[in-house]
């Protein structure tokens, strides 16, 4: 008799510094925006309970430092990720150009088992700035890039105004879930294989 | 007071300053309460022990030489520094002056360094007119173009060409761009040039180890690794050239080139004070003016005819550990023009600086004034210009902010910041935060010996990397503690910053 244990989904947010990674995470988890977020040093994470098809999941969202020089820490943080969110600022060309770098860096460092199909989601943030007049990357251009990388889902967001953030993270959670290998979907507390030959883990609580 | 199981987790630093360790301990609690239950660490700080103005003044002789810094240091370690004398004391703590210097000498040195800082501001201003004006270079959220792209492509081609001709000097010159697209050869060159500078500045107390090559040519590569590894360091200020382009006239002898250094051996009672005498400082000459090809500027008089400082001024600047070492990157001092690449890289860096400056300590009333944000931005911009191997990296603004608040003069703040970064810059370079990673490994060994229970617990949960402490060490608890608490923390740990890291000494 297998009981269902709440599953943990690990999500990593990557992108240049100042594109709004921390703000997106906080808007999604706490529904708050602040102008006073400091530059992230190392990494932080927040968790949020999400429901999907009558099941509860814990979304563990890792917010990372945007500066390239802290990437040596990446291995530790990227490991075990179920979905990777790539964020750029629609007003800063460089942050878009760097998406490729962040994607490749992730694939190298996290080395997922199936890199071709590993789920990414791209967010073009800060669409609210100057009423959209200062943006330098068009939606079309961003979508074209996403299409060229295996149809990565793309969202335009404003962490400041909460625009599209919920929808984006729902997609992120869904994709993270898809990535989870089938056999790990259900983690039984106890196993009774009935003479399966393999030695079983000790049963019961590990306390 | 105990940092143990009691509810009251406060580290009292006297009447005015109380370090609340709740934030720190809450982090630790997340890892596991039991670990702290039998902690033997007791921190007792009393207000009497704080370094007060009267006691500080009593430590100077008639000429203004400090004759009893050891006593002062003991008080600082035990109780911090009275805020009214903070700026003055911090300059000594950071090693800006040798203790043997007279008040008059220090006054002249200060004047000279302020002048020098003004020159640097001018240089930066010629590349971006906002620098030094009290306003920020960019409006955050504005459209920003990275002007580096074309330069970078050019550079790659250029570098490849140079590789084939093995023209090392040119590669160094071209390679101020810290972009990750630098070729392998270029990166090697960069590392070499920046290491030379790091090697010149090592810190510590062991006079025996302070071997000193009067001609300063070969000695530059050994101090960094050799001395740091055995925990003994010394302060020196030899300016050693990469090549032999500098004639003997650039090497001057300074009789009183003494640097104060000290060492705390995990015990405030074991403060060792010494004045290492380094009789010779190899001088760079004052040909440090940075020539660059600034596309839209026509200030030839500034670029090409920087006034030659008189020998006396040079003398003043070189005697103590003035910011010059940082100023003179090999690529600059070898007389090669700073390339357009370097300028465009710096301009992009300036953008990144502004992005972070506006979100550094933005809760402080002090930074509601944009001019103060601009001061922070200027200092970071100047630093990034003079030390391109480090440039700007996140976390540096957290370290700079206290100096901007404490010092009224930007040059003074810059100087102290630069002194601090001599110890910290290894965390902010392209290679990654190597110093912190090393410290985390050391911390792990310390835990193994001193906090067995915590060690066992962290081992069990697989937290050997101690990454949760990464930020604490990188920005010296600026994020875990409030602004004032962090300053007190810096003071009671000051000797650690100056000599060698000893986070857990109490």
Describe the structure.
Chain A: It holds the Pfam family Ras. The complex is a heterodimer of chains A (about 210) and B (about 500). Chain A is about 30% helix and about 20% strand. Chain A is α/β, with parallel strands linked by helices. Chain A has one domain: P-loop containing nucleotide triphosphate hydrolases (Rossmann fold, 3-Layer(aba) Sandwich), CATH 3.40.50.300. Chain A is globular, with a radius of gyration of 19 Å. Chain A starts with 6 loop residues before the first strand and ends in a 28-residue tail after the last helix. By secondary structure, chain B is mainly α. Chain B is about 45% helix and about 5% strand. Chain B contains 22 helices and 6 strands. Classes of the chains: A alpha/beta (about 210), B mainly alpha (about 500). Chains A and B meet through helix 3 of A and helix 14 and helix 20 of B.
Task: Give a quick rundown of the structure.
Chain A: Belongs to the small GTPase superfamily. Rab family. The complex is a heterodimer of chains A (207) and B (506). With 207 residues, chain A is α/β, with parallel strands linked by helices.
């Amino acid at each position: 008799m297998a009981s269902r244990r709440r599953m943990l989904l690990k999500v990593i947010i990557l992108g240049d510094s100042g594109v709004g990674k921390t703000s997106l995470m906080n808007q999604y988890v706490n529904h708050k925006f602040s102008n006073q977020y400091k530059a992230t040093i190392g990494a932080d994470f927040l968790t949020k309970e999400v429901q999907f098809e009558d099941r509860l999941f814990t979304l563990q969202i890792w917010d990372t430092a945007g500066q390239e020089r802290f990437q040596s820490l990446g291995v530790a943080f990227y490991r075990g990720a179920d979905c990777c969110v790539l964020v750029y600022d629609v007003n800063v060309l460089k942050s878009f150009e760097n998406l490729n770098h962040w994607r490749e860096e992730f694939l190298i460092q996290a080395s997922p088992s199936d890199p071709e199909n590993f789920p990414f989601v791209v967010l073009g943030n800060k669409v609210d700035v100057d009423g959209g007049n200062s943006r330098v990357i068009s939606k079309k251009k961003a979508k074209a890039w996403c299409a060229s990388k295996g149809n990565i889902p793309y969202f335009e967001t404003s962490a400041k105004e909460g625009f599209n953030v919920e929808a984006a993270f729902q997609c992120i959670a869904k994709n993270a879930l898809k990535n989870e290998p089938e056999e790990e979907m259900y983690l039984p507390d106890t196993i009774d294989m009935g003479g399966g030959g393999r030695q079983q883990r000790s049963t019961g609580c590990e306390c | 007071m105990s940092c143990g199981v009691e509810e009251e987790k406060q580290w009292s630093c006297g009447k005015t300053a109380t370090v609340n360790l709740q934030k720190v301990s809450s982090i630790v609690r997340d890892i596991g309460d039991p670990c702290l239950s039998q902690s033997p660490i007791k921190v007792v700080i009393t207000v009497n022990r704080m370094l007060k103005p009267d006691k500080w003044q009593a430590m100077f002789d008639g000429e203004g030489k400090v004759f009893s810094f050891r006593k002062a240091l003991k008080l600082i370690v035990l109780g911090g520094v009275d805020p009214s004398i903070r700026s003055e004391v911090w300059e000594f703590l950071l090693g800006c002056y040798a203790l043997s210097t007279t008040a008059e000498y220090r006054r002249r040195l200060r004047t000279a360094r302020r002048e020098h800082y003004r020159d640097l501001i001018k240089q930066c201003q010629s590349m971006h007119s906002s620098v030094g004006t009290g306003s920020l270079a960019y409006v955050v959220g504005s459209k920003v173009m990275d002007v580096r792209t074309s330069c970078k492509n050019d550079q790659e081609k250029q570098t490849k060409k140079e590789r084939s001709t093995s023209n090392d000097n040119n590669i160094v010159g071209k390679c101020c761009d810290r972009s990750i697209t630098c070729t392998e050869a270029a990166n090697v060159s960069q590392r070499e040039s920046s290491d030379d500078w790091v090697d010149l500045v090592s810190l510590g107390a062991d006079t025996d180890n302070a071997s000193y090559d009067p001609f300063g040519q070969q000695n530059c590569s050994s101090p960094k690794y050799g001395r740091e590894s055995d925990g003994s360091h010394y302060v020196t200020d030899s300016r050693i050239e990469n090549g032999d382009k500098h004639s003997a006239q650039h090497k001057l002898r300074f009789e009183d080139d003494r640097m104060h250094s000290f060492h705390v051996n995990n015990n405030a009672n074991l403060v060792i004070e010494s004045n290492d005498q380094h009789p010779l400082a190899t001088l760079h000459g004052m040909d440090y003016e940075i020539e660059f090809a600034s596309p839209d500027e026509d200030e030839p008089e500034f670029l090409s005819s920087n006034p030659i400082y008189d020998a006396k001024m040079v003398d003043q600047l070189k005697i103590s550990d003035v910011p010059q070492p940082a100023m003179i990157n090999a690529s600059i001092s070898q007389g090669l023009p700073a390339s357009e690449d370097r300028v465009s890289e710096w301009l992009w860096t300036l953008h990144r600086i502004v992005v972070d400056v506006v979100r550094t300590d933005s809760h402080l009333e002090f930074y509601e004034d944009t001019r103060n944000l601009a001061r922070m931005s200027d200092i970071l911009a100047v630093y990034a210009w003079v030390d391109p191997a480090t440039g700007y990296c996140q976390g540096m603004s957290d370290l700079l902010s206290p100096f901007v608040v404490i010092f009224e003069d930007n040059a003074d703040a810059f100087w102290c910041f630069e002194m601090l970064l001599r110890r910290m810059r290894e965390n902010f370079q392209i290679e990654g935060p190597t110093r912190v990673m090393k410290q985390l490994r050391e911390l792990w060994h310390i835990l193994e010996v001193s906090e067995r229970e915590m060690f066992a617990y962290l081992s069990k949960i697989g937290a050997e990397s101690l990454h949760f402490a990464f930020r604490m060490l990188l920005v010296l608890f600026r994020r875990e503690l409030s602004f004032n608490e962090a300053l007190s923390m810096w003071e009671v740990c000051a000797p650690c910053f100056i000599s060698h890291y000893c986070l857990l000494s109490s």
